[in-house]
Write a structure and sequence with these properties.
Blueprint: H1 2-22, H2 30-37, H3 41-47, H4 51-76, H5 82-94, H6 97-102, H7 105-113, H8 117-129, H9 139-153, H10 160-170, H11 186-192
GO molecular function, one term: DNA-binding transcription factor activity
DNA-binding region: 29-48
Region (Disordered): 180-203
């Protein structure tokens, strides 16, 4: 039991080490990760046989521990402040700007946002019931708007003022009113990877 617990702790330390390094370097060496985690390189590779497996585990931890709670809190809030939610979301991701500026961010973002599907469904429902979000929005719409914001506002040249300016410009379009949105086809849903239970009735 003790060995299993130690093994789990080592894996957690390795993942945390990469998260810490990502705030300043998009591609630290595996040796740097091991050194930061305080483990030997053999221990690192025993848990994560290649860089891809370590990066995916770290992205999943990052989104589960830092991003999902933002969405979950918003979904149960008495009043939904969409600007505050989006700003916190983008600012949190922005701490890892070197990573998102250097890698194929769309792939990592898409994989990680899949873990937020259920919280986004709840956020959408609560926002629509409160009259804050337009009725024809679907969960995939929120996911893609935030995806675009993340890609556009995590530059190292960004600032809190820059983020708030463009969030304030974009987010009102999610509110009630305005022209109807073009419906998504089944082919669109398939390309976006939307589960059948999360598709609108007009797809």
């Amino acid at each position: 039991m003790s060995q299993r617990r130690d093994s789990r702790r080592n894996a957690e330390r390795i993942v945390q080490a990469l998260r810490d390094l990502w705030t300043g370097d998009a591609s630290p060496s595996m040796e740097q990760v091991a050194q930061t985690a305080g483990v030997g390189i053999a221990t690192l590779y025993r848990h994560f046989p290649n860089r891809s497996s370590l990066e995916m585990a770290t992205c999943q931890a990052l989104f589960a521990e830092e991003i999902a709670p933002i969405v979950e809190r918003a979904a149960v809030a008495e009043e939904l402040d969409l600007l505050a939610v989006a700003e916190e979301f983008v600012a949190t991701i922005g701490r890892y700007a070197p990573l998102f500026s250097a890698i194929e961010v769309s792939e990592v973002t898409d994989e990680a946002l899949e873990t937020l599907a259920d919280p986004f469904v709840e956020l959408l429902r609560s926002g629509q019931e409160a009259g804050v979000l337009r009725r024809d929005l679907e969960p995939v719409d929120l996911l893609w708007v935030l995806r675009m914001l993340v890609l556009g506002l995590t530059s190292e040249a960004s600032s809190r003022t820059v983020r708030r300016r463009y969030l304030a410009l974009i987010l009102p379009s999610l509110g009630p009113g305005g022209p109807a949105m073009p419906p998504l086809s089944e082919d669109d849903y398939d390309r976006l990877g939307v589960a059948p239970e999360h598709r609108g009735p007009h797809g």
